[in-house]
Amino acid sequence: MSKKHSNQPHGTNDLVEKILLDKNEVFADVLNGFIFNGQQVIKPKMLANTNTLSYYKANGKIHSQDRDVAKLLTIGKKKVVISLVGIENQTRPDKNMPARVMNYDAAAYRYQLTKSKNLYPVLTLVVYYGKEAWNYSRNLLGSVNMKKLPEEMRPLISDYEIKAFYRISDLSAKELDKRFKSAFFCLAEYFIQINAGEEYHPSAKELSVEDIMLLLDMMNALSGTHAFDELIKELEKRDKNEVTTMTEVMPQFIQAKLDRAKKETTEEVTKEVTKEVTKETTEKVTKDYLLNILNTTNLTPDGAMDLLGIPEADRPMYKDLLKKK
Questions:
Q1: Computed from CA positions of residues 148, 151, 157, 162, in that sequence, does the dihedral angle turn out positive or negative?
Q2: Fewer Cβ in 10 A, N or C end of the chain?
């Protein structure tokens, strides 16, 4: 069943990070970007939905395991299935990932055996968004303790390897632009920049409002924050078919962050620090967001201050602060 943008709380459910990639054009873009270096080999019309849930019995009980996203890859007018492809999103290294991927793939083959004697291949891509290095083995035997196993038996133990492993932060800006055409480009760009310790400065790639909302939902979910909640609420007021860019909507996000920072700072200061510290903190936050607006838009300093509603009396001070950046 195709998943749609819903009114459920944003960024609070694991389903959130699946919805964007469940769109055929985004799923195809991920395959084309990582596997075919940006060549448009896989077309959205070649993809068909499939069940992501499988079951197994352990300790006398039935358990379930759920892939993040999976599609059937088909060819021809008759939609002949040639592969099942799954995508698993990872924000942290997991030493058991090879075993998890093996279980997902084995479940897909097991299901095929109940339907037909002819099997089609199963491929699982692991997309890693995290900042830290993935220092765990991508092979099953790399995480299996065989020290006490007789030497003669070790070569006989079957291995399982994650061959389709992709780390977002390994991509350069030039590679990113070459490889991805959909909203996934913005998602990857976001994690590349924040993993490098930078402020997020989006490119002016055109997206529908619905895609931007799904993108922000996934950013919230994968980063484990609610950073984009205010912007999502604003975008929900627009026509989902409206086309815009992240660059266009970012000033709204900056304003929402500024308002929240001021509120949080004020509450904290009320409890712990003096009014002078509140003033200095507010000035620093305001200066940071002024710089962010100036770096991501074509606005003048006065235009940026108009956007943030900075009083005329305070503007000379902020212009001096900007000169000291």
A1: positive
A2: N
